[in-house]
Each structure stands twice: as structure tokens, then as C-alpha cells.
Design brief:
The protein is of the alpha+beta class. The chain is 23% helix and 19% strand. The longest helix has 18 residues.
């Protein structure tokens, strides 16, 4: 990665204030074409890792085709241990300095996933990323690194401004919850329409969703989630241990007991 340029870009206090007000922020042109090209090339090689893409491997997330219902591979979670360029972005000083400005203290990586969203893949129903586990950091913020141009047509993530101020809107029972539409005014949704090189950030309390990918191109994005230093410090390893335990239990509820992590 030594050939990639890496300058730190300041972010204005006005942008940080807007993030706190609205619960999301877009920073345009943060990364060079060379950096995003390296990430795209890595995503292309990862999709060929057929030995990993297995419905019993809990690193993989799946989603149905919005018309045919075919079950399609959608995401590696985690990804940085497989992918040096993803790891480069996860530790990027520009992202970390923006998070530092949001938190007013250092940030730690909590979670990392690469969503491929191939043509036809269904999107995500309305939800907040925060989960009501005692260990889950309330300071959770996700940074999206756009690999492909993201539009409404290909299923951009759509956020609902200012509602993060209400905190967690579901029971703190340790389960994943979708949100009903009565929590939002659908006309207020903002699709995070990004170009390669842009970064978007949103809070773990920001309600968001995405439509199916109606285009004939992939919509690949790297999702990097962080917490503040005073909210648990470096807990990525502990998070994945707990998450894997939770996934084992969820799969077992559906009779799937042979799952593994690779
Ligand atoms: O792919 C998207 O647009 C949204 C993904 C998402 O909401 C999630 O992974 O929690």
C-alpha cells in the first residue's frame, strides 16, 4: 500500500455540527482514484474466494433476489482479516480524524463488512444498527467507503435525518429489530448517493434502509464501524466473539448446527 497517497483532510466544525444534528454526513472526494481502484480490484478477487462463500460459513451474509427469491451471496463480515486494502481503509488516518472530530476523542474499529449487492439483490428493511446488548457501544458510527457509484436505482443506503436524536427505538432485548414505518416520514429519506472516493458516515441510531439493486451493475461498499475510546476502547475481537456466539444460537434455532467461521 506504500504507493497509495494518504493525506489527512481536515473537516470543518460546521460539518461536525451538521453530523450531530442530522445523524449523517457525506465527505466528497476523500480518497484518490488509485486507492478506490485498489479496493475495487480487491473486491473482485474476494468474490472469487469460492472456498469461503458457503452457506455454513458465518462470515458470509446472504440476501434474496427481489424477484426470483434466489438466495445470493451479499457480504463478508468481517473482511479486513482477508483483505489488506480493506484493512488499509479501516485504519485510514482521514477516516479516523473525522471520527476523532465527531467523538472529540480517538476512535476504535468495531466492525467491518464488505457488501457486494449484486444486480437484483434485495435491500435492507428499515432498522438501526445499534443492538440492545450490554456490550454494544452507543457511540457506534459507520463509515461507508463507496467503491461503485451509488444511486437510488442500485439501492443506495437511505438515511432518515435527525431521528438518531431519539436514541434506540426498539426493545433492548438483545435481538435484531426492524423498525416500522410509523417511526419515519418517508418523504424525509436521504439516499446516500456516493461516487467512488466519497465517504458517508451515520450513527448507530440513525434509521436507514435500502432498496433492491434494480441496475445491472454491482453496488459495492465497504462498511467500517467504530466506537469512541471511552465507550469500550478496542473491543473488535470481543465483539466478533459475541457476534459469532449469537449467530451460532440463531442458526441453531433454524436447525442449522454445522455452521463454522472461516
Ligand atoms: O446495504 C445497505 O445499503 C445497508 C446495509 C445495512 O443497513 C446493514 O448492513 O446494516
Amino acid at each position: 500500500m506504500a504507493s497509495l497517497t494518504s493525506t489527512t483532510q481536515p473537516i470543518s466544525p460546521e460539518m461536525i455540527a451538521r453530523y450531530h444534528e442530522e445523524g449523517f454526513l457525506i465527505v466528497r472526494d476523500l480518497f484518490s482514484a488509485e486507492e478506490v481502484g485498489a479496493l475495487a480490484a480487491e473486491a473482485e478477487s474476494l468474490i472469487d474466494r469460492q472456498e469461503l462463500i458457503d452457506s455454513d460459513n458465518i462470515r458470509c451474509r446472504w440476501s434474496n433476489h427481489h424477484e426470483t427469491e434466489e438466495c445470493l451471496f451479499d457480504c463478508f463480515d468481517p473482511v479486513i482479516d482477508l483483505a489488506p486494502v480493506c484493512n488499509y481503509f479501516a485504519n485510514d488516518k482521514r477516516i479516523l480524524s473525522i471520527l476523532n472530530a465527531i467523538y472529540q476523542e480517538p476512535a476504535h474499529l468495531f466492525k467491518d463488512k464488505l457488501i457486494f449487492k449484486k444486480p437484483g439483490v434485495r435491500g435492507y428493511a428499515l432498522h438501526q444498527d445499534y443492538i440492545g446488548w450490554d456490550s454494544f457501544p452507543e457511540s457506534f458510527v459507520t463509515a461507508i467507503v463507496a467503491i461503485d457509484k451509488t444511486t437510488k436505482e442500485n439501492g443506495a443506503t437511505e438515511v432518515f435525518p435527525c431521528l438518531h436524536q431519539q436514541g434506540y427505538l426498539s426493545p433492548r432485548d438483545g435481538q435484531y429489530h426492524e423498525l416500522s414505518l410509523e417511526h419515519i416520514d418517508e418523504s424525509q429519506g436521504v439516499p446516500l448517493e456516493l461516487s467512488p472516493g466519497d465517504l458517508a458516515l451515520f450513527s448507530g441510531f440513525t434509521p436507514h434502509r435500502s432498496s433492491p439493486n434494480y441496475s445491472d451493475q454491482w453496488r459495492r461498499q465497504l462498511y467500517l464501524s467504530y466506537n469512541s475510546a471511552s465507550d469500550g476502547g478496542d473491543q473488535r475481537k470481543a465483539h466478533y466473539q459475541e457476534f459469532h456466539q449469537w449467530l451460532h444460537e440463531k442458526y441453531a434455532e433454524y436447525g442449522k448446527t454445522e455452521v463454522y467461521f472461516q
